[in-house]
Structures are given as C-alpha cells and as structure tokens.
Amino acid sequence: MSTLLARYLEPFIKKDLGDKMVFLGGPRQVGKTTFAKSLLPRFQEVGPTYLNWDNIEDKKKIIQGKLPSVTHKLIIFDEIHKYKNWRNLIKGYYDTFKNSQQFLITGSARLDYYRKGGDSLLGRYFYYRLHPLSWSEIKSQSNSNFSLDHLLKYGGFPEPFLKGTERDLRRWHLQRNSRIVNSDIRDLENVRDISLIELLISALPERVGAPLSKKNLSQDLAVDFKTIEKWITILENVYYCFRVSPFGSPKIRAVKKEQKLFLWDWSELEDPGARWENFIGSHLLKYCHFQEDTEGHKMELRYLRDTDGREVDFVVMKNKKPLFAVECKKGEKQVSPAVKYFCERTSIPIFYQVHSGTSEFKHSERIHVLPFDRFCDAVNLV
Question: What is the band of 118 on the pLDDT scale with cuts at 50, 70, 90?
C-alpha cells in the first residue's frame, strides 16, 4: 500500500522545499497528510515536526507561537489556513528561520484564496495541487494490480479506491461530504443556512457534463441567483467541484457564457456517460495543474460548443493556445460529426476521440480515435 501511495508530486516538492516554502492544496481526503508525513523519514537525523490546526494541542502551540526547536529541519503545518492570522504567522516563521528550516503548508482548500487579511507571501512559496489517483499514476506503481474499471468505479481518492467495496464507498461519500460542509466551509465561510449547501451538493451530480443552469438551481433551492453563484464558488474553493468555460470564436458561433460543472470525485456519479466524461475531465485538469505547478505554464481547460448544439467535450489550452481537443465516448463508435465539423473550422492541432474499448485508428492526421489507456500515453498524462 505504501508503494502505491507514492505520489507523483514527491520529487518536485522535495526539490522546492530547499528553495522556498511549499503550499500543498487539494480536496479533503485526497492524501495530503499521508503524503506530507511520508516526507518525515528523510529528516529524522535532524528531526521533523507535524502540527495540525484541527488538533487541540497543536492549535494551542500555533496560537502561542511555539515553533519547534531549530533542530527540527522540516515543519509541517496542516489545515492552518483556518486560523485567521495564519499568513502573518507563517511569514514571520519563514523570514526568521528560512536558512535553517523548511516549511510545508497543507490544506483542504485553496491556500492562495483564503488569505484571511494577512500579509502577502509573494515570492516566498511554491503552490502545488494534489489530485486524486489517476490511471497513469496507478500504472506507474510496481505492485499495482488495479484495473481501469476499478478506478472508474471507486474513484481516485485513496481510501475508497484501496478498499474497493460499494459499502465502503457509500459510507465514505457521506462522511466526506458532511465534513466538507460542517468542517471546511463552516470554518472558512460566513454561510447563514449551511443546510442549503448540503442540498446544493446533493443536486450537483445530476448536472455534471451539461451546461450549468444557475437559474434552475436557484429555483430548486429557492434562493437568489447570486447566492447560487457564491455557493458554487465556495465549493470550488474547497475542491469539491470545478467549472469549465467555453472556447471558440464568433467564426464558429461558439457559446460564450455557458459553463459546465464537474466533481473532483467522479465516483459520486451514477450515470455512466457523465461519469466517463468527468473521469477524463479530471485527468485533464490534473494535467493542466501539473504543468502550471511544476513548469509555470498558463494552462486552461475549456470545452467547445456552438449555438447549434454541436459540442466537443474538452479543449486543453497552453499559454492561451489550444494544444488538443478531447471527445469522450463510452463505447467504440464512429467519429463524432462535431469532431469533424470543428476540426475543419478551428486551428486546434489535434482532436482525440477517447473511448473505453480497444480499437485505435486515425480518421485523419488531426483526428485520432483511441482507448483511454493509449490516450494517457499519447499526451503524457500524469
């Protein structure tokens, strides 16, 4: 199990810890704490330490400013973004001890968003986002016997993935969603009726993959349109969901405002087609974040849709230019008419139609049909 959970960001974070602080964000229970603690043995000769804001004793030490001895080379602060003065505290520690200690800050929310009014930390840290296990990551493990179907069914969060039973998956969903609402959001946001956030979470899975109508959501939950927008943004900030905006120009009469929504945990989705699209979208988002966090490229995940309803599921952008487009098909089918249409009318270099079968062929130099496993290799997904 420990070999399986060796994560893809490990060599990059180890290297960057020698230069600046490292912030590690990502969804609750994605494995941030396990990953952070896995680094501790490397520092045993000089001593490491781990402080968790959710632990009462650790919280007292943090509030009192009791930094461990300088003999502790690596200091890990977990969930400290819930402390209103966390940035001032971390800035002071880093500026004072940066020549003798290394700092790793982890949290189940966007650490670049929840500033809590503290001083700027610009230039003092590198920011990484840890994603759920992906197919490429699992294949790279020397002792992995898991299948693609297993990953698709149980999701990429380590606990339900490793246990691999429907009973454990259902219980884990209930616990995780409850903690997102009653711990993460309650600690970070001023939301009057927290129970309505729970209703919103229960309503989002059935809307995955389709253009998101905030108007319909506001009517279903009997709240203001602006409130729905605020709540979805909150859920994005705690890594529950993410939105994808449209790509295109007036030349192809592309839609401009209709966003699509996806979940960080695709195993919540019951519809096979929606789950497959979310599964691939999550892998593409991981690829985009990896390129940003390790190489500094400006990446975007978009989708392609025109006013006549023709659609290609995803477009990956690098430094404002399209790299490739992806159409998701659950079975092995002929090339989508929308793929052919947009291939003729856009400058996107290559279109991949990705399916769960085994066939692979080139419809043209710019249109490739291939199974997901081969697609991962073709574009070097992490």
Answer: very low
Q: Please name the residue that has the structure tokens 């919540």.
A: 268
Neighbours of 85 (CB within 10 A): 15
Residue 49: other Cβ atoms inside 10 A: 19
How many domains does the structure of the chain reveal? 2
Residues 160 and 100 grouped into a single domain: no
| End-to-end CA gap in the chain | 19
Please state, in angstroms and as integers, the Cα–Cα distance from residue 382 to each residue in 61, 202, 275, 285, 301, following that order.
38, 30, 19, 10, 15
pLDDT (average), residues 189-210:
92
Closest CA to 196 of 221, 224, 226, 229: 221
Does 238 lie in the same domain as 164?
yes
Is residue 359 included in any domain, yes or no? yes
Q: Which two tokens stand for residue 40?
A: 């501790």
What does each C-alpha distance from 247 to 162, 241, 258, 355, 371 come to in angstroms? 37, 20, 10, 22, 25
Mean per-residue pLDDT of the chain: 91
Residues 110, 25 contacting (CB under 8 angstroms): yes
**Both tokens of residue 357?**
């079968």
- Of 92, 107, 129, the residue at which a domain comes to its end is 129
Across 272-292, average pLDDT: 98
Q: In what order do the strands lie in the sheet with 361-362?
A: 260-263, 241-247, 299-305, 311-318, 321-328, 351-355, 367-371, 361-362
Residues 149-158 have pLDDT tens digits of 999 999 999 9
Tell me if 3 is assigned to some domain.
no
As a whole number of angstroms, the distance between CA 352 and CA 284 comes to 13
For residues 163-169, average pLDDT: 98
What does the block give as tokens for 373?
């496993």
DSSP assignment letter at 207: G
According to the model, what pLDDT value does residue 117 have? 45
Q: Look at residue 48 in the predicted model and tell me its pLDDT.
A: 64
List the domain range (segments joined by +) for residue 206. Answer: 135-379
124, 141: one domain: no
Structure tokens at 243: 């939105």
CA distance 264 to 242: 7
Counting residues of the chain whose pLDDT is more than 70, the rounded percentage is 94
Contact criterion met (CB below 8 Å) for 304 and 260: no
Angle CA 125–127–129, to nearest 5? 160
CA distance 292 to 364: 31
